[in-house]
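Lab notebook, page 48
Experiment: co-folding of the full assembly
Goal: obtain a model of how the components sit together before planning crosslinking
Operator: M.T.
Materials (sequences as entered):
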Amino acid sequence: MNIIRIEHIAKIYKVGTEEVHALRDVSLNIDKNEYVAIMGPSGSGKSTLMNMLGCLDTPTSGLYQFKGVSVSEMTDNQLANIRNQEIGFVFQTFNLLARYDAIHNVELPLVYAGVSKNERRERAKRALIDVGLGDRMAHKPNELSGGQRQRVAIARALVTNPSIILADEPTGNLDSKTGEEIMALFHEIHQKGNTIILVTHEEYIAEHAARIIRLKDGLVEKDEVVKKRFVPEIKENHSE
Amino acid sequence: MRILLFELKEGLSIALRAILSNKIRSLLTMLGIFIGVAVVITMSTAIKGIDNSFQSGISSLGTDVLYVDKWAWFTNEEWWKIRNRKNITMEEYTRFKDLVKLPVAVAPVTNTVQTVKFNERRVDNVFVNGSNADYVKTTNFTFAEGRFYSEIESNAARQVAVIGSEIAKKLFPNISPLDRTIKIGGFNYKIVGVLAEQGSFILGPWNPDNQVYVPIETIFKNFFNRSFRTITINVRANGPAMVEETKAEIEGVMRNVRGLTYNQENDFSINQQEGLQQSYKSVVGVIQIAGLFITGLSLFVGAIGIMNIMFVSVKERTKEIGLRKAIGAKRRTILSQFLLESSVICLVGGIAGLIAAIIISLLINQFIPTSIQIDSVFIGIGVSLITGVISGFAPAYTAAKMDAVEALRYE
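Observation: model returned without errors.
Model output:
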């Protein structure tokens, strides 16, 4: 089943009097449990596409169906609900709240989902254990390393059991070794049956995915299956 | 409803966390509201206190008393016309008294300002009232000790005096004044009665607490000749309902006593407290409005402080707002988060201000009377909440309508 179905979408921004065609004509489908990387140089429209996929923005024209429901017709509140329940965001800069400890950061999406306090705590704990941070729950972001922060962010993305994980340059702020560990975590998450969409401009990161969609000038330049896929070793010490 | 409560609870915990994470800033912001609420409430308790004091003071004089006087308390008439009126004399009083039927009491009053002494102690500029035994019936006086002077004492011009409670306190801090002899303007008077506190600071020297009462004949004997000055005739109606009727009667009787023909104007005035109350209200009303306006300004400045800090706070947390939106916060959730934050700041500041106002009111109650009303507590809390919501709304709205994508990109 298609989780995401996009047909001929375009996005036009108005900058002053000039119209910027961030996306011209993009069509693609993403199925359940796919692992897709979206690549492209800056200005190719990959950020716009990601915002669209993440329901943070709606297309100017074209069709975007999320699990069979058209996103362009949704109200702000409906979009907020989709983001809350169906999409887990992972950002390049982690975007953790500095004054909250790890477990509270992970709980946050559940607060907006209206989950009761005890259940929230339970689920956040499980998510943190799943990403290998069972012993760091009470630490604030500034007491955690970059890799650990990204793990907290991943736990936050996973905690609502979303239909897709949307990761925007998740290794962009990490050194290559830590980045590799994070990619291994994504691999593991994918193995568990999750759908992952990865936005990156680095070839070797993209090669972790099973499929790469290359964008250029607001168009899909190439939509290909990765032949020589990079499969990271899974370290057993994650799951405590 | 349950969802609303849930959101309120969660929003409150988010707001509290935000406030606590920036303690000094929150405290300084609260200070603005604290001062604003404190002065507004202190001002209103002081106004209320003065008002109460005036009302009780005026009622100790009797709300149903009319004053037949050469002088008018409130008039548009030219001053020289009034000055040229004839003095009211004791003879006129006697005839007047014989003719009126409706009043319950009629008493002639004159006064002189004298120094009152007991041994080494003295009080200067005391209003010494002279009247007769009926005078006490025109008032609502209550006695701490002793009695009012009697008809015999008054007719015989005896050297007897009744003193107000403040005078008693000043001259006799430790002993009972009863039967002591004081000097009024150099003459000896025996104290036969001490008034209980009548409580009307606002009347100043006209406050019965600060006065001395002696027979009118004694005043004429000691201080000035009876034809020297006009007297006032205090007339008490049989209850407030009878005031108008009594006023009509005494006007007729007084015109008769004066021998005025139908086309002559009154050459006397009938004063009553209603006029005093009206002019009091117009004066105090202005003070109230001015006072509340000025103190309200400080609250307004506090509110601007809140709005300012909330704008800064929203700007600072742009990225956080973007994130919250990305993970599912709705506009109204963001709106309520910031509204709650400003409301909590205002409420805490306001309640502290209220407590301070109550303490200040109790302190200044030593000097001027204040009256803490239960409604000022609700007003204080209400005002600070409303201030919080109003001053927080614009910043919260800015936050709520932020574009998630742009907010996330904000550095």
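Interpretation: The mean pLDDT of chain B is 87.
Next step: discuss with group before ordering constructs.
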